[in-house]
Amino acid sequence: MPEDDIQKQKHLLRKRMLSLRSLISVSDAKRSDEAIRSQLLSLPQYKQAQMIFCYASTAKEVDTLVFINEALLAGKRICVPLCLNAGIMQAQEITSLNELSKGKMGILEPPMSAAVIPKHEIDMIVVPCVAADKNGFRLGYGGGYYDRYLNNYRTASETGHMAASENSYRAVNETSCRAANETSYSGASETSAARSTGNAHNDLVPFAVLLCRSQLLLDAVPKAKHDVCADLLITG
Questions:
Q1: Interatomic CA distance for residues 100 and 180, integer angstroms
Q2: What is the Cβ-side half-sphere exposure of residue 72, based on CA atoms within 13 angstroms?
Q3: Can you give the pLDDT of all 236 residues of the chain as single tens digits?
Q4: Domains plus CATH for the chain?
Q5: Which of 93, 130, 134, 212 has the fewest Cβ atoms surrounding its Cβ within 10 A?
Q6: How many CB atoms lie within 10 A of CB 2?
Q7: Based on C-alpha coordinates, what's the Rg of the chain?
Q8: How far apart are CA 21 and CA 143, in angstroms?
Q9: Which conformational region is residue 141 in: left (phi greater than 0), alpha (psi within -120 to 50 degrees), or beta?
Q10: In whole angstroms, what is the distance from residue 151 CA to residue 227 CA?
């Protein structure tokens, strides 16, 4: 399918899913947040991670602010996104939620003075979405920030740790998506021979975890050539 047609499909689906998300009650959202956070905190990848790159949630997204605070209290290092030019973001370290303030798009951001964390130091990335499918592909907000950020691990521009070709990186991701929720999805691979999850810093890329409310889970989302699949999908 032509790229323009895929983007049109995404645009229409994004509008529909954002409308559906707006109908989720506060109580249902809270239950979802708690279920997803419990699973996230129980992951062996979380327990082994030293540096975690996590989005700072907005009102309708799966909440990550409590998770960030708990991770900091547990002695983890946390970095959050700072959006720069169109589609470009960088990870900047915080030591407290009090360091965050609303940016021009109403998203909580770290101060410009916060330390920029090199990609090779990140062990785990927690990724937001508007919706997701059962194979770990996401429907984002259309800016391409996370796909660009993760795709950049394909190059060896920072260290040999990230020396993966475009084709080999996509092959790893398309065969390593796993579902960690209360039900097992037949479309998700439970194991992966392509990735070791036991030790921090040993993978080609950080372990990417996608958070999605169960009400916003789809059988499939339109996929463009640059789209990146998460390693793990958590719903609740």
A1: 29
A2: 17
A3: 788 889 999 999 999 999 999 999 999 999 999 999 999 999 999 999 999 999 999 999 999 999 999 999 999 999 999 998 878 899 999 999 999 999 878 899 999 999 999 999 999 999 999 999 999 999 999 988 988 888 876 543 343 333 222 322 222 333 344 444 433 332 222 223 223 333 333 455 799 999 999 999 999 999 988 888 899 999 99
A4: 3-235 (3.40.50.10420)
A5: 93
A6: 7
A7: 17
A8: 19
A9: alpha
A10: 8
Tell me how far apart the alpha carbons of residues 120 and 206 are, in angstroms, rounded to a whole number: 8
Q: Which amino acid is at 76?
A: K
Q: Please, what is the end-to-end C-alpha distance for the chain in angstroms?
A: 32
